[in-house]
Each structure stands twice: as structure tokens, then as C-alpha cells.
Amino acid sequence: MITERVRTAHVLVVEDDWPIRHLLKVSLSAHDYEVSEAENCKEAISSLAKQVPDLLLLDLGLPDGSGIDLLRRLRQEHATPVIVLSVQGAERTKIEALDLGADDYLTKPFSVDELLARVRAALRRSKSLHAPTLLTCGDLELDLERRHVTLAGHEISLTPNEFSLLMAFMRNQDRVLTHRQLLKEVWGEGYVDDSHVLRVNVCNLRRKLNSPDGKRNYIKTEPGVGYRLCLPRPA
Amino acid sequence: MITERVRTAHVLVVEDDWPIRHLLKVSLSAHDYEVSEAENCKEAISSLAKQVPDLLLLDLGLPDGSGIDLLRRLRQEHATPVIVLSVQGAERTKIEALDLGADDYLTKPFSVDELLARVRAALRRSKSLHAPTLLTCGDLELDLERRHVTLAGHEISLTPNEFSLLMAFMRNQDRVLTHRQLLKEVWGEGYVDDSHVLRVNVCNLRRKLNSPDGKRNYIKTEPGVGYRLCLPRPA
DNA sequence: TTTTTGCATCAAGGATCCTTGAAGCGGGGT
DNA sequence: ACCCCGCTTCAAGGATCCTTGATGCAAAAA
């Protein structure tokens, strides 16, 4: 099941210099992109209000205001990829734009081939977004992306092994996990019989997860079998 | 946008002892589960051939063969959640079943409330599967799940910081990432000006990524700006 | 050419983490 | 009552990793 982009991509070119703007329009149109044009910030803003393009080519040296501000406004609402055009020497502005989330840059003069390659790369990337992976169990939250764990709101710091262990638990809430399963998952095939190292880590994990007053217990021991993560019951 | 299970869940009960099987059927039916029954391995296999249930309740002490073998056969094709029933003392078999991928277990005699809780938990879990997150760039592969990186097939070992750094790169292939962006992403807000630590890590990462003969280069330097990950060109 | 600037690389002190040993605790069985 | 077994907890040696300083290098600027 693949979702393919069928319609042609729409590119908005924001550039005050006519020869360059024309070059961009011709080059992009020749490769089946649909092109809109704006020659200053004002036109760009009204164009964006009408329709948000698939990609923005933005010159940073506009007559009626800084392209940086335009980029900042755009980024507050849209994740549209942006490729920045700049003249040599405007390093400061260029880097500021990239830090603001611009996707790429080209320094004038640039080759059309390079421009087209950058456009393709930016459009390709913008298609692949990833679902935010966040596991929860009670007031425990585990963020796979950032490798952060928060308990009742504030972050707690885990060692790499503790994090993997907790990840295995949270993917299998309320389920018994045998010693071998946990050892295999976190330490690998070679450790399936080393139950001591597992016990030490469960101990350390509990110390960090359970409330200071020891009134909650997320990890339940299944004697002779393994462990199980479940909602803590106020002992 | 939520996908909710509307139809009733289908449970297959595999149990030779009539009183227990009857108890299970009555209890589950009373809670709107659709129940099928099998009193030995043979019946279970033919039932599975007809229709794969949403959950399997499996007694391990069957007259015509080991429930373990049934479980092993099932696991070769389906990820159907399985809750195992066992008598006290059959620890060995029970743990074997769990290691094979059984989801939970109940030791006879068990309370019906506990059974129903375990059934709910197992069905809830089976609904949440996660997309395998695997990023690639040329013959570089990064597995978000297992935190493994392979280069042309064989694994290479990265330190935690190196892994985060490469992850940032692979999520933004062909895109320039400024020093500040990378430092913020990997080290956090407080490090955005410490470009030295970034350079050292990029250096170490390159040493591990590039082929021994130094003929490939994944990470391209953008002088004054930052770095960019792209397909290596045979220098 | 000389100087400067930014990047690459090496090395070491210090911090963190992992493994393993040893001791304490408690329930079940004899 | 005693012992045995599994689980918990503490502690330390050793391994790994991270940061920082020092040095080398190359390209651009003066």
C-alpha cells in the first residue's frame, strides 16, 4: 500500500531580481513543476495566504523586508520545505535561516543542475514524516524519539540498559516477561542465563521509578517466572 | 481519527477438562466474547485452520499431545495472543510456553475476574503494533528499534552520542544541518555554541562509517555552515 | 608569502556505567 | 525450628565513554 504523489509539485519562487526569477521559473517549469512567483515579501505573504506550496525558493535579499522574517512567520504554521538563495558574503543571514528550519541553501551564482537536485531532495524528504512514538503507563511516559522518560511530569534519567529494559516492559504492559525474554531483549542471546544482572537492573530501575515514599510499585515480580509491568496500586 | 474494534472478539478455548471448559465458555460469553471450544490438540488445529481467533486460551495438559507444540506451530504463522493455563507444579512447561511467546499464564485454580482482566489486557496489547523504523542511506542502515547500525551488511558499534548524531543526519539526508541544529538536537539547548565537541564526534563517526581504505565519505563538510549526510561518491 | 580562520585529529583526565561478588531477607518445605 | 532457594540490595573494580586541550592542516585573506 503506497501513497504516491501524482500531481505535479507546486513551487513558489520569491525573488526580486527579474533575470534570476525568470531563470528559476523556466528551469522548474521545464521539469514539470508548477511555479508561482513573488517579487517581494508582500506578494509572497498574499500568495501563501491563497495557497501553501509544496516548496518555497526564497531569496534573502528582498527590497521590502527581510526574508528571514518571512521564514519565521511561515515556520510558525507550516513545515513546508524552504530552500534559501543568498549572495556570497551573506553568511550570517544564511546560517540564521538554516537555524530557523530552512532545508537547504544555494549561493549565487548557482548551477541549475544543483538547484534541481536540491529541489528533488527537499521534496523527497518532506514526504517521509514519522509517527511520534510515545508509550505511557499511568503517569509514566517514555519517548522513543528523544529517549526521555518522565514520571508524573518531571524527567528521570536512566542508564542505557535501564532504558532498554523499561522499553521492553512498556511495550508489553500487563504481560509477564520471563527472565530469558528480558535478557535476550536487552542484553542479547548470549546472556539468557545471567539472571543476576537482570535482577540488579530491575532493582535500580525500581528505585528510580517508584515514588520516594515507596508507596508505588510499577514492576511486579512473578516468582520463578519473571517480571510484569502494570499500573501501580497504592500499596 | 481512531480505529475502534466494533465486532466482538473471538476466543478459542483449548481445554480437555469439561467443567473448566464450561466455566470459561460461560464466563467469556457473558462478557460478549464469541467463544469456540476444542478439547484436544487435534480439534484445536482444525479449528485454527478454519478461523484464526483473536485470542487463544490454551491448557498445557492436553491428552493427545503437548500444548507447547501447538503453541510453537501457531507462532510460526500467527502473532495471535495466547494465555496459557497450567496446573501448579508445571513450572517448567509454563516458562517454556512464555519463552515461546505466550502472552500470559494462569495457574489453576484461578479467579474468573483475574482471567477476564488478563484477557482484556492481551487483546488491548495486540491492537497496538508499531511500524518498523528503519532508515537507510546507501548501504548504511540504522534501526531505531534495536539501536543497531549496519554498514554494507555487517554491524558497526557506535557510542550513544554518535548514534544520536547519525540519527539526526539520516532523518535529514542531503540536507545541510548547521552546527547549532546538530548541537541542539544531540546535546541539548545548552551546548549550541560548543562546536568543538561536535567536530570531535563527527570525526569519530567518519572513522567508523568510511571504508577502511578511506575511499568513501558519507558526511560532507559545509565550511562555515555545518554538515550534510549524502551518498558517498567514490572519491 | 605570511597571517588568519576554520576544520581535523590525537590524547588524557574525569565521569558514568556495567558486571560481579557478597550479604540480607523471606517464604516454603522438610 | 531449621534449611534452602530465589529475590533484593549494597558495593567496588574495571570498562566505556565524554569532554577538553593541544597540535596539525588547508584554504582564504591580507
SSE diagram, text form:
The structure is a homodimer of 235-residue chains.
Chain A: E1 10-14, H1 18-30, E2 34-38, H2 41-50, E3 55-59, H3 67-75, E4 82-87, H4 91-99, E5 104-108, H5 112-127, E6 134-137, E7 140-143, E8 148-151, E9 154-156, H6 160-170, E10 176-178, H7 179-186, H8 195-209, E11 219-222, E12 226-229
Parallel strand pairs in A: 1-2, 1-3, 3-4, 4-5
Antiparallel strand pairs in A: 6-7, 7-8, 8-9, 10-12, 11-12
Helix pairs in contact in A: 6-8
The structure holds a DNA duplex (30 and 30 nucleotides).
What does this structure look like?
Two copies of one chain form a homodimer. The first copy, chain A, has 235 residues and is of the alpha/beta class. Chain A is 39% helix and 22% strand. Chain A contains eight helices and twelve strands. In chain A, the strands form three sheets. In chain A, strands 2-1-3-4-5 form a five-stranded parallel β-sheet, sandwiched between helices. In chain A, strands 6-7-8-9 form a four-stranded antiparallel β-sheet, covered by helices on one side. Chain A has a three-stranded antiparallel β-sheet with strand order 10-12-11. In chain A, α3 (67-75) links the parallel β3 (55-59) and β4 (82-87). Residues 1-5 of chain A have low confidence and may be disordered. Chain A binds a DNA duplex (30 and 30 nucleotides) through α8.
